[in-house]
Each structure stands twice: as C-alpha cells, then as structure tokens.
Write a structure and sequence with these properties.
It is a single chain. The protein is mainly beta. It has one helix and ten strands, in the order ββββαββββββ. The chain has a domain of 79 residues: SET domain (Beta-clip-like, Beta Complex), CATH 2.170.270.10. A hairpin with a 5-residue loop joins strand 1 and strand 2. It is globular and about 40 Å long.
C-alpha cells in the first residue's frame, strides 16, 4: 500500500544543500514529516523527494542491554527497540527523530541498516514527497502474533 500525504511546501535550497538542512540534525539527510498512517498509528513521510539508494536519516535513542530491551518489549504495546548486537540495543521510545515512526511493510521502499552502532535508513527506490517511508521489520519480538496491516500485495500477514 502506498500512502501519500500532501508535501509541505519547502523553501528553495541554497547551492549544494538539501531543503531546510539547517533546521534538522546533520544525520537526517532528507526532510521527514510525521503524520497519521494508513498502516498503523503515526508514520514517517518523505517531506521531499528522496533518490533511490540514498541515506534518508537515522534514529538515535537510549543505549540499553539486550536483556533490558527484551523486558521492555514485554511491557509495551508499541515496541521501538532495535537490537544492535547480542549485547546492545537502542530504545527509541523517547527519541525526537521522525524516523522512529517508520512503519513495517512487506514491500518496503526503504531498508534499516545497522552501521557502526547507528540505526540508518536508506531508500530502496525513489520515494516521492508525501509518500510514507516503510521498512521490512524482519524478525520481531512479536513472534508472529501481531497482524500485519501493510496491505501490500503478497503481505505475509503477521509480524
């Protein structure tokens, strides 16, 4: 399912600079808005066109142990945790980064990549301004008990 929202008009970029780059953290390469999602709750939406294979941005949060992460995952309906290794995880539940609202899709337009302890997002294909940014969550703590709501053709049905 492709969800589009009207893009918010942005000021023209300065030479060699993406629109509004100075109003967001340096690790957020493209402008992303948060809004209601047809998939689930809130979603992350491209506020400008994102070319294929480009880094969209990152999410940052609280560094915790995997043991703590697994305990927190049992206490919350909405899990915003990524395990970086067998010992380290990051909890994004208090993060202000818009990418924390990235929803799952069985046919995503972006991928989540763990690089040097950072959780980064890259466009798999061009993403138009207003389109919801989605990733395939892969293995989750839901262990197949959460119904997938992505609506994509060939949806596997559960997370």
């Amino acid at each position: 399912m492709t969800t589009l929202r009207p893009a918010v008009p942005r000021a023209a970029p300065a030479a060699g600079e993406a629109p509004e780059a100075s109003s967001r953290p340096a690790y957020q390469k493209y402008a992303v808005d948060v809004g209601p999602s047809a998939i689930d709750g809130q979603g992350a939406f491209a506020a400008q066109n994102v070319p294929a294979l480009k880094k969209i941005g990152e999410i940052r949060g609280e560094s915790i142990s995997v043991a703590q992460a697994r305990i927190r995952a049992t206490r919350s309906e909405r899990i915003m945790i990524v395990e970086l290794s067998d010992k380290k995880a990051i909890d994004f539940s208090k993060s202000a980064d818009p990418m924390r609202y990235t929803n799952h899709s069985c046919q995503p337009n972006a991928r989540l990549c763990i690089r040097q302890g950072r959780v980064e997002f890259y466009a798999l294909r061009a993403i138009a301004a207003g389109q919801e940014i989605t990733v395939d969550y892969g293995e989750t703590h839901h262990e197949g008990r959460l119904r997938c709501q992505c609506g994509a053709l060939g949806c596997r049905g559960a997370l």
